[in-house]
Write a structure and sequence with these properties.
Blueprint (H helix, E strand, L loop, with lengths): L24 H12 L3 H44 L5 H7 L11 H27 L6 H10 L9 E6 L8 E2 L4 E2 L3 H15 L5 E5 L9 H15 L6 E4 L21 H8 L6 E5 L4 E6 L8 E2 L2 E2 L7 E2 L2 H12 L6 E6 L11 E2 L1 H13 L2 E6 L6 E6 L8 E6 L6 E3 L5 E4 L26 E8 L4 E8 L4 E4 L6
Parallel strand pairs: 1-4, 4-5, 7-11, 10-12, 11-15, 15-17
Antiparallel strand pairs: 1-18, 2-3, 6-7, 8-9, 13-14, 16-17, 18-19, 19-20
Helix pairs in contact: 1-2, 6-7, 9-10
């Protein structure tokens, strides 16, 4: 029998006595797992890693303290040298006056400026190293495109997302007879660099699937994914990644064997995340953004062949369904929800859309404040779940924004906004006729979508820079 005296039946009511934004994001990831993971082994590992991170932070703080102590000692020694008359005042005056520029008021100001210039040079070298590895820096016409458009983004307190769909980094040739519309990999990397400039003006960026095209040897496909991540490491705001139907490198290869496939875990490792299903919260805007993987396909092999390849099937696993259900159930009544997926979910299931109907019903019940028992008895990914949102307000689901179709489309027949935005790289004509509607090396080639959500005004605005049209919608009981 345990000696523990559990005598307090009340729920936790801890005071709001710390700023969550000051908590190390690595620790937040683990503490969230402690709260939400189903199995003890997962929560124990999360707690262990959180403690290890705290140790790392403590050691880093100790290192900084030691460095500060050394600097203080150096400062005191310098002061003693000055008192001893070892500093020549004429030397100090000369040091404040660089050649061919205005003098600094103090020597300290010049030294600080030199430090900043050094840091800028290091950052530029990091950029240059990446550019060199990616076969060239940013083209001037991309820089001009950014300079001509950046002032239109604005800064009004709303949530702003830099949305990037369907880069397809690889040499892209369409259709028969073969027409080469450009070296798509290099252009995709160039577009990512362009988006890095726009990242200065947004809250975060979402790389929303089909980062690579998947028609190349498996190692090159891995390298392509890693190159995407390397460029995004240069962004000035957070970057989130979703999974499309091309990332794993087995696209168009038959049979779909392990040697033709990058596993989902390998992709997670490349992008440095634990799941492609992710939740982003804006407390200021009372908004929850769900990044939902509609290609969370189980990697099941029969006679050595994958029976659910991503280039052919879009599978909503029970893990993805449970992730969305849990996030919707935990959403405060005064919050709105927007979903970002690689492609908009289908209304009905087919050989290629698996459990989409279950996810549609989940969003419908959330939006209509209803309840339902949702089931799916399909092999490998059955769903058996009761959802009940009857005690919550209606019309809190803004809708879904996706890509995948390489065209701009819009529909609201399900009671929310289903929005499809076209691909970034123009080398694939939307009608596959061989005649591109977007011409390389012109502004029609370029696309940047800045998604703005204002929950106070109940407005969703997608600003299109480059080819195509912007989109201005209302939500919360929409009338469009």
């Amino acid at each position: 029998m345990s000696d523990t005296n559990y005598r307090d039946p009340t729920h936790n009511n801890f005071p709001n006595d710390y700023d969550k934004t000051n908590v190390d994001t690595r620790v937040l990831t683990r503490t969230r797992a402690v709260r939400e993971k189903m199995y003890g082994i997962d929560t124990r590992e999360a707690m262990a890693q959180a403690e290890e991170i705290n140790s790392v932070v403590a050691n880093e703080a100790k290192k900084v303290a030691n460095e500060v102590e050394q600097r203080q000692t150096d400062l005191e020694n310098r002061y003693e040298d000055q008192i001893a008359g070892n500093t020549d005042i004429n030397e100090v005056i000369d040091a404040r006056r660089p050649l061919a520029t205005n003098p600094y008021e103090t020597l300290g100001e010049r030294l600080n400026a030199m430090t900043e210039q050094t840091e800028d040079a290091i950052r530029q070298k990091n950029h240059d190293d990446v550019f060199k590895a990616l076969e060239g820096g940013m083209h001037q016409y991309l820089i001009d495109f950014y300079e001509n458009n950046r002032n239109e983004i604005g800064n009004d307190g709303s949530v702003k997302i830099n949305l990037i769909n369907d880069l397809h980094a690889q040499k892209s040739v369409y259709p028969s007879p073969l027409v080469d519309h450009g070296e798509s990999a290099k252009r995709a990397f160039q577009y990512l660099l362009l988006h890095g400039l726009f990242s200065k003006h947004v809250d975060f960026s979402i790389i929303n699937g089909d980062q690579i095209h998947g028609r190349e040897p498996i190692q090159l496909c891995k390298d392509r994914n890693q190159s995407i991540k390397s460029i995004c490491n240069l962004y000035d705001s957070p970057v989130y990644y979703n999974l499309g139907n091309h990332e794993d490198g087995d696209c168009y290869k038959v049979p779909k064997t392990r040697e033709n496939l990058i596993t989902k875990q390998e992709l997670l490792d490349i992008y440095g995340i634990s799941s492609f299903n992710q939740s982003i919260i804006s407390e200021e805007q009372k908004l929850k953004i769900l990044i939902v993987s509609v290609y969370d396909n189980p990697e099941i092999y029969v006679d050595g062949v994958n029976i659910h390849p991503r280039d052919q099937h879009s599978v909503i696993t029970n893990q993805t369904f449970d992730f969305v259900k849990k996030e919707l159930e935990a959403t405060p009544d005064d919050y709105y929800v927007l979903a970002i997926m690689h492609n908009v979910i289908s209304s009905n299931d087919s050989d290629y859309s698996v459990n989409h109907y279950a996810l549609t019903r989940l969003f419908t019940n959330f939006n209509q404040s209803t309840s339902e028992h949702i089931t799916s008895n399909l092999p490998y990914y059955s769903i058996d779940s009761t959802v009940d949102f009857s005690n919550h307000p209606k019309n809190r689901f803004i809708g879904i924004i996706g890509g995948h179709r390489h065209k701009d489309e819009y529909d609201n027949s399900r009671g929310w906004h289903d929005i499809t935005r076209t691909c970034q790289v123009c080398s694939d004509p939307s009608d596959h006729t061989g005649t591109p509607i977007r011409v390389l090396d012109t502004e029609t080639e370029l696309i940047t979508d800045i998604v703005t959500i204002d929950t106070e005004e109940k407005k969703l605005y997608i600003k299109r820079f480059g080819y195509g049209e912007s989109l201005d919608l209302s939500f919360g009981g929409m009338t469009e």
